[in-house]
Task: structure prediction
Amino acid sequence: MDCLFCKIIARQIPADIVYEDDKVLAFNDISPQAPVHILIVPKKHIDKVSNLKESDKDIVCELIFTAKKLAQEKGIAESGYRLVLNNNRDAGQAVLHIHLHLLGGRKMGWPPG
Ligand code: AMP
Ligand code: ZN
Result:
């Protein structure tokens, strides 16, 4: 499959992996936008939120709970962090494999750009 994140999951492309279990992989973003910027991806290829199925509910849950755990480990749980899940063009989704951004370690602006 011609998917960047599937290739990272398959170890065909290197990444700075910070967490893995049977359902998800997490790695540092190659172009970090905050002191902590981790991408959490399901091992199952799902291109975008719009195409999630009812049967994918547990995977979505796993993404969020992994973010919560990593935020704790990285020491940003108390100071705060942002979870971002871009969907499709207007949101700026560049990689069509669902990924949850975990961003923290600095004060964030609102509204997002
Ligand atoms: P999005 O715009 O939500 O689709 O986010 C895609 C993210 O993937 C961006 O933050 C990129 O910096 C990141 N990215 C692209 N290629 C890689 C890579 N090879 N390893 C890690 N992160 C990547
Ligand atoms: Zn994929």
Observations:
- The chain has one domain: 4-104.
- The helical segments are 4-9, 57-74.
- The radius of gyration is 14 Å.
- DSSP finds two helices and five strands in the chain.
